[in-house]
Specification:
single chain, 272 residues, alpha/beta, Alkaline Phosphatase, subunit A, 2 domains, two-stranded antiparallel ribbon, 16% strand
Length: 272
């Protein structure tokens, strides 16, 4: 049986990895695949994309297509008249003490790869078990300006890295972890402060180096993004329609084309 470690690097851009020649991220084999589109947003969207990867099903089947939920009933009511016509509904609900929460595994309508792998660890996976605290911290930081926001992005990232490395020594057959720094900085630094984004990519590459020293050689390491990041005319970044993948083994059969392909490929690797 081959152990599988999936490093989920949200919005890691294929073109930038190649341009900056980040060999640790490219590993032995790498490429791009067609990202899954969110039915709600019409483009790749983080929670629905990662849930597709861990279930092998499209958003219409697994049921996750947004970050936040007020619960099934209130989510439905908010899209119907007269509430759909009311502006600033979130502020009103918050004043009434009604706060949303992040979607979690209990809303996923199908089995995940973790359900089929008894000795598995899932850490920070959007739509599955991502904690709410980092999002609240970032929401408060952005109100104080871009410099405070970037500072907080790095603080959250360091917390994620430390938590991950602590758990890496546990017993597992499948370990998947998610990092959002490339996405968060990509949205604000894709054009105007590219050096900051470059530093994040270097940090992710260094993390891969650390991981390889801490894991047995027979571990299949999959680096995966849910989509990339493209520059926009207003100086920001937005989700591109393809994701990045790489592996540390010469597995000719591992050649994903779409997001739904990863589920069966991971399952096959675990059975090898």
């Amino acid at each position: 049986m081959m152990r599988v470690l999936i490093l989920g690097f949200d919005a890691l851009e294929y073109e930038l990895v190649v341009k900056w020649k980040l060999k640790q991220l490219m590993q032995k084999r790498y490429g791009a695949y067609e990202a899954v589109k969110s039915p709600k947003y019409g483009k790749p969207h983080t929670p629905s994309a990662w849930t597709t990867i861990i279930t092998g099903r499209l958003p219409e089947e697994h049921g996750i297509d947004d970050w936040w939920t007020y619960g099934k009933i209130l989510d439905w009511i908010r899209t119907k008249p007269p509430l759909v016509w009311i502006k600033n509904k979130r502020k009103i609900l918050w004043k009434l003490g009604i706060r949303p929460r992040l979607h979690s595994r209990k809303e996923i309508k199908v089995k995940t790869i973790f359900d089929l792998t008894p000795r598995s660890i899932a850490l920070f996976i959007p739509g599955y078990n991502e904690p709410v605290e980092p999002h609240m911290k970032l929401n408060e930081a952005i109100k104080k300006g871009i410099n405070e926001y970037i500072k907080t992005i790095w603080e959250v990232h360091r917390w994620r890295v430390n938590t991950f490395l602590e758990k890496l020594n546990n017993d597992w057959d499948l370990f998947m972890v998610w990092f959002d720094i490339a996405d968060l900085l990509g949205h604000v630094c894709m054009v105007k402060c590219r050096k900051e984004l470059w530093k994040a990519y270097l940090d992710l590459a260094r993390l891969v180096g650390i991981v390889k020293k801490k894991t047995p050689e027979d571990t299949l390491i999959i680096i995966l993004s849910d989509h990339g990041m493209k520059p926009m005319p207003d100086g920001t970044g937005d989700h591109s329609e393809y994701g990045f993948w790489s592996i540390n083994k010469d597995l000719e059969w591992f050649n994903p084309k779409k997001a739904v392909d990863f589920y069966s490929l991971i399952e096959k690797a675990l059975k090898m």
